[in-house]
Amino acid sequence: MINSISSLAAISDGHGRFVIENTEVRDPVGSEVRVRMAAAGVCHTDHQSLAWEGPLVLGHEGAGWIESIGPQVSGFNIGQPVLLNWAIPCGHCSPCQHTQGHLCDRTQGLSKESPSVDSPHTVWNKQDIRRSFNLGTFSEYTLVRAEALTPLPSPLSMTEACILGCAVMTGVGSVINSAHVQAGDSVVVLGCGGVGLSVVQGARIAGAKTIIALDKRAESLERASHMGATHTWQIADDDHNFENTVKHVRTLTNERGVDHAFEATGRHHLAFAPLKFIRHGGNALQLSGAHGEVSASMLDFWWDKRYLTPLYGGCHPSRDFPKLLRWIEEGQLDVASMVTRHYSLPQLQDALNDMLAGNNIKGVIVFDKDAP
Ligand SMILES: [Zn+2]
Ligand SMILES: [Zn+2]
Fold first, then answer.
1. Which ligand is nearest the CA of 103, by number?
2. Distance from the alpha carbon of residue 308 to the mean position of ligand 2, in angstroms
3. Which ligand ends up closest to the CA of 99?
């Protein structure tokens, strides 16, 4: 008989609301692992997911300790600290075989073994419920496939490591894996929240010579300077079409425009804005996951520009997370300064409100007061 463990979790109702109540998370079978969560990052996608079909255990960034393992799991030990990764590679499909684990056919629902086939194993109100991105990190315990886990070095703080699995990977990965920023390149970052500041750091690590941070908030620009921006520009409220901002970027780049511009505002109508800042043949990248209809002037595409919509910074976990962890250890990647406030799980609404008000770079839910 398979037993389960009681776990306090945030469960959305699918209509914009959520409750914090007990669930039952069953013992792992096959290649599953049950993780005791230490900390979970709060992301704009969590707010959006309140409107997804419910009930749903919320949360898709997190780190914790392995609590129990299924009989087919190898290479992991009980008590081991691990990072959870929401784009879970199957390891076998064509994208996974070509270091594009973030586009795994299983994650994208293309293979027969789609995520929805995952056996239901979280019970709330006597019904089996799903978990956000098959993780559901806003829960004291979660049950995941072993492929979702990356081992973490013990000295690393869990409350800092937990943000690697979304904002940091998206920002740094888009610089390194998608734009392929090279030493000496010039970069514009539009929007300096958690993803934008990760772009700034990625560009600094890649050796970009000019890193121009653009935001409406002076506080965000100050943070960008600390993270490695060489220039900052506060966008005026009335600079609707970025005319003055574009002029300023041109004066900084001999009137050419930059090599790469990244949009990380979370505002869908700005999806094409990065095209305005790049030189002929440059890269414009939209990191907000914009959807819906957005119009643009074709003049913004002149000439030979590349427009990219990278998913999750092109994350291939076995290649990228060890790299990020090494950069943290070497002091090149600063995640500590990006976590600006801790919350308990019952304070999730405060965490979401602070995020929407732009008060945090990253807010983090901490499950265990004693978590490092
Ligand atoms: Zn996220
Ligand atoms: Zn795959």
1. 2
2. 22
3. 2
Q: Give Cα separations from 224 to 57, 60, 179 (angstroms).
A: 33, 25, 20
Q: How far apart are the CA of 91 and the centre of ligand 1, in A? A: 22
Question: Of 199, 213, 169, 166, nearest to 363 (Cα)?
Answer: 166
How close is the Cα of 86 to the center of ligand 2, in Å? 13
**Gap from CA of 173 to ligand 2 centroid (Å):** 19
Ligand closest to 59 (CA) is 1
Stated pTM of the model: 0.94
Query: How far is the C-alpha of 312 from the C-alpha of 103, rounded, in Å?
Result: 9
What the chain holds in terms of domains, given with CATH numbers, is 4-163+335-366 (3.90.180.10), 168-312 (3.40.50.720)
What are the Cα distances from residue 13, in Å, to 10, 49, 58, 140? Answer: 10, 10, 10, 19
| Cβ-contact 220, 193 below 8 angstroms | yes
Q: What is the pLDDT of residues 333-370, one digit of tens each?
A: 999 999 999 999 999 999 999 999 989 999 999 997 66
